[in-house]
Amino acid sequence: MIEQKSADLAIAPVQPADNGLDQLVEAIENDPGLEGRISEQDIEGGAKAAAAMNAIITEAVEATGSMQDGVVTADEVRSINTYIRTHYQQEWIDLHGDDENGEETGFHLVQNDGATMRYRGDNLINTVADGIYHLGFEIEGDNFLNEDGDPNASVEQVAEWLTQFYTDHSTTGTGLDRITDTIMADKGLDRNITDAEIAEAADNADRMNEIIDEAIRETGVAADNHISTDDIVLINEYIQDNHYDEWVELHGDDENGEETGFHLVQNDGASTRMFGKNFVNTVADGVYHLGFDIEGDYILNEDGNRNASLEDLAGWVQYYYVDQSDTGTGLDRLTDAVKSDPGLARNTDADDINAGADAANRLNEIIDEAIRETEVAGDGRISVEDVRTINAYIREHHLEEWTELHGDDYDNGDETGFHLVQNDGSNIQFRGDNLINTVADGVYHLGFEIEGDYILNEDGDQNANLGDLATWLNYYYLDKEIIYGSEEADTIRGLNHAEEVHARGGNDKVYLDAGDDFADGGDGNDIILGGEGNDILSGGAGDDKLYGQEGSDIIAGQEGNDYIHGGDDNDYLHAGSGNNRVYGGSGDDMLIAEDGDDSMSGDDGNDTLTGGGGDDRLYGGTGADTLYGGAGNDYLYGQDDNDTLLGEEGNDYLNGGNGDDALDAGSGDNKVYGGAGNDKITAGDGDDIMSGDDGNDTITGNGGSFRVTGSKEADFIMYAHAGIKKQKS
């Protein structure tokens, strides 16, 4: 019997395959559609599963002697399949995963979950990678079967994809690799020329990228994060001085019907568009003329004719090579999105994208400064009030600069600042919103005026809601995971780090884990468990059950008749509207009621309970507690230890319970009982009935008439005011 090999992915990280298959892992990690829709943990899990399958494929290719000539044949794919099923069948099934009963595992954590990258007309993750990762499943006829037994990719197609991906044609580790990636992925080239020609051209382009990278580093022209036309001249001079002959050969030509070098793909049917131009035939071709002669403001081609302008070349090289996000915070991802959005790049000039990215980066620097100077993130979360504080700082210190950086789109068609890229064709999504046009634009209105719960735009109209701004800053600046539910009944399980959950409609169940988390139940009767960490839980509308569990939590029931339990540590519990039940749990807790008839118990610890406008029942529990009745006819019971009870407004019932308690009847006609212990009881303005009960008590009048019952000779009663009656029981 052949032993089934296995590996525990949870124990050790999977090593890269050290071949072109690693590109599939990088695609999973960098696909903007995935980041905009699913959690970082799901992306990490899918990438990890893909890396493990890549390692198995690599072992199978080597063990079967496949791809000796750089091409994987259909017969070799069948041999690879047999090897995997013989040695790794169950592990492969587990790594590929599934999406049964609403739960996704393995590679299925990212498959059909919003990926947007394309490869020769197909979705790179959902079709190409998924086809390759069915390599370990059964073959029936000419097709692989999927986990449900239905036909997936053909054996021939998987052979082609393995051939195309097994060798990496993008090796510089710079943004220039995106040029060769796009050449390999072009659908038009795939229709018109062979895989071998595309791969050879990409390899020549990759070597020219290495030379460009060397030239930029050696000349230092990108030190200011900007490439100018003068910088293009310096790059050109370096290439001509050090690599001219090699460059000419790499670029190639199409003389006498024979194509060589990069010319194997130039003017051969490429269809990808960038910056409003054919990407391969104009943009890439222009970049790969960088080593030819310059005449005036243009680079010349191999025939001595004008090719790209130096201005266009500067914009293209900056777009691909220069990293314009340098705050060192998660806000850099917004700038990166400007540089990577395919819809934006398809139709917008590179200079406009670069200028928009520069504006975004400087706006990010100001936001970072505001957050650091105001210290609003010191508690690990940015709230709506924190957004107001950030806004006030920006307006006080940077208003004029902020307005200029954000820019506008004027009636004459001119655009400035960040508006150079806003509403210009971007299509990356973030949790259902356009990332550039809505999310980034909302963040970059942070320095404008606030009206109510909204930030205003440059025209004085409502832009983003302050709550949304807080959520986006928590995600991008504080690296909190954002999880959205649906309008149906969802079960949401948290991650092992800080996250923000918006369950939305439906009767939801939310189970948080480690980390300082935020969860909003939204509409419906929800159940939320905080788990470890200092959590903030909000029930929203509906009759909710909220459990803080471990950590010092903040819990707000909001609308509906809610059940709230603080759990361990020192919690802040706010009942909200409705008739609620609130339990502090262990720790020194603060419990606050609103207008409903609430029942609140401090439980263990030295707690503070404050009644609201309804007829509330407050129980101190163990510990030295403080109970405030508030408005309404309330019931206050101190229970154990030395408590302080204040009836405040309404006709209240106060009982100190055990311990040496201090009881103040407040206004209204109250009944006050000291309970066991040496108590201090103060009457209020109304007609009160007071009893010291056990212990040596002190009872004091306070302006109203009161009656003392059940007192003992040892009690001290102050008859300082008229209207006092003493009645022994």
Structural summary, described in words:
The structure is a single chain. This protein is an alpha/beta fold. The chain folds into 4 domains: 22-166, no CATH class; 177-321, no CATH class; 349-475, no CATH class; 494-694, no CATH class. The strands form 10 sheets. The protein has a 14-stranded parallel β-sheet, with helices on one face. A 14-stranded parallel β-sheet has the order 21-23-25-27-29-31-33-35-37-39-41-43-45-47, with no helix packed on it. Strands 5-6-7 form a 3-stranded antiparallel β-sheet. A hairpin with a 2-residue loop joins strand 15 and strand 16 (433-434). The radius of gyration is 35 Å and the shape is elongated. The relative contact order is 0.04. Mean pLDDT is 92; it is low at 1-12 and 722-729.
Keyphrases for this structure?
about 20% strand, 14-stranded parallel beta sheet, about 725 residues, disordered C terminus, alpha/beta, 20 helices, 4 domains
What Rg is obtained from the alpha carbons, in whole angstroms? 35 Å
Low-confidence stretches: 1-12, 722-729
The chain-level mean pLDDT equals 92
Helix content: 25-40%
Alpha plus pi helix count: 20
What is the number of beta strands? 47
Strand order of the largest sheet: 20-22-24-26-28-30-32-34-36-38-40-42-44-46
Question: Structural class, please?
Answer: alpha/beta
State the major sheet.
14 strands, parallel
How many domains make up the 3D coordinates? 4
Strand content: 15-25%
Span from first to last CA?
92 Å
The coarse overall form would be elongated
